[in-house]
Amino acid sequence: MDKLTIAMPKGRIFEEAYELLLQAGFDLPAELDDSRKLIVEAPQEGFRFILSKPMDVPVYVEHGVADIGIAGKDVLLEQARDVHELLDLEISRCYIATAGLPNTEMDEMTPRIATKYPEIASQFFRSRGEQVEIIELNGSIELAPMIGLAERIVDIVSTGKTLKENGLVEYDKIADITSRLIANPVSYRLKQQRIDELVKRLRK
Amino acid sequence: MLIEMFEKPLGMRDDFPSIVKRKSKLSAAGIKRMEQYGYEMLQTPSLEYYETIGKISAIADNQLFKLLDNQGQTLVLRPDMTSPIARVAASKLLKEKMPVRLGYYSNVFRAQLREGGRPAEFEQMGVELIGDESIYADAEVILLATQILRDLSIGSGKIVIGHTQLLQQVLRGYGLEEAMVEKLRAEMVAKNKVAYENLVDALTVGAEEKASLKSILNATKLDEWEPWIDRKDAVQLSLYEGMRRLKSILDRNGLEPFVTYDLSFTSHMTYYTGMVFEVYGEGSGFPLGNGGRYDGLMKQFGLHVGATGFGLRVDRLLEAMPAEVQQAENALILFNENNEDLAHEKAKELRKSGVNATLQFASAVNALDEFSSLFSQVIRLDGGQNG
Lengths: 204, 387
Hints:
- By secondary structure, chain A is of the alpha/beta class.
- Chain A has helices at residues 12-23, 57-62, 73-79, 118-127, 143-146, 161-165, 185-190, 192-203; strands at 4-9, 39-42, 47-52, 68-72, 84-88, 94-100, 112-115, 133-136, 152-157, 169-177, 179-183.
- The two termini of chain A are 23 Å apart.
- The model of chain A has no long low-confidence stretch (mean pLDDT 92).
- Chain B is built from 14 helices and 14 strands.
- In chain B, helix 1 (17-36) packs antiparallel against helix 5 (135-151), helix 6 (164-172) packs across helix 7 (178-189) and helix 6 (164-172) packs antiparallel against helix 10 (234-252).
- The relative contact order of chain B is 0.12.
């Protein structure tokens, strides 16, 4: 049996995704994440898990060092990589939205948007015919409007709690986000049977 | 110590001698095979007009290297070989010899936008068979492409074949609006099964049609295409029959275990009008090459003839080729001022017997041991000891 290399996002999504695999009846060790290992083997199923940052999953898959992977739709939208998007796993549900301080307008001359998703943000505003300046941040995006770096942010919203606690309100919803099963185009063809089988079991 | 770096532009690579050696073997094998099949090798210029080649080529505009000539015309470094060859074929000279079989082995240029790990200049080899609309021409290029892979000992390959026109006809057969057909096709190009299924779910067609539309993404065998073919539609029927004939030719040539028939495999380029295919091999995470029938491209050059062909990426073939086991023999002859003529004599002998011989004046080498270790055989005429 060919070994199947699976890129998994570390952290929040990992547990939900791993649970899905267990539910689908795959014979896997009960715990994986508590080790500091980056590569974990599951020899009974012929799986090798690569544990990576969520943003990096599509990179490993596109370059073919991982055959398949589990990636958030937010990351896929942002990076537009050449991979097969095979299945909506319907886990880690959230959405991308614009937010800002209540009752504020965007600056007319130089509207500024702070975000971790520069591509999604610029596409969204371009589609509305608005020309904006994007400021890329790596975390705690909510800070930006509070201290006057930008009028709006584009970020993930799951419960809206973080926005609320920081006195921000949501303005436009951009896209719904869930985790997806993705595959490298070459692996998809060379290991199609195994991958199709896996998709079928996860669908149930 | 601070090391001074002499950098090169993003995506540009140096080929070191070991790679050059493998490449020249690869090109010799490929060219020989193409010529054996009756293809004549052609070279076209590195620079072309943006207006003709740049716009027509399958490569996205922001991936083109553009420059201005001294007349202010925009030029591009050729991003592919298919469109330059179509340009040549449209010239009067070749029109009279149709069908014409042309082959190429050339470097092409595509700017890299995001990150490393991908070359911006790489070699491609392939063929174009222009002026033949038959299924036999399609079969010929697929057989030739796979023969070249076999010549290069790439055993673990796989081919996926689709058909752009048949796909379009089949989708239209569900009574969908043209805009929706385009949307569904676009999701297939994007390899986005999730978005495709969501689009189908939102359609106003019956449950049976929905299931049928969804199944288009799952076929791997040609027989599985049958339920989608409208028997009353003459166009669909004849295209499907054509695919069956193509399959029977490929099967008879032993390709059956390697071919997947996936109707949803298609291209973003609208000039592909018939069967399209892509080739994969273990060892490379990216396709080794692709091809198909592109009658639409010839029309853009005012030529109403059929054309089919393929291109293989040399850099990816190198990744998928098994590593060389046998190293060629190379000898080092170290000489001093008293025996330079003897050294020449010796070198001549070795070269005659097929050994590469390097002549080196011994005193000019600083680290003799390290230098000598690069050779399989060291002959010391300079009076020193081996070792």
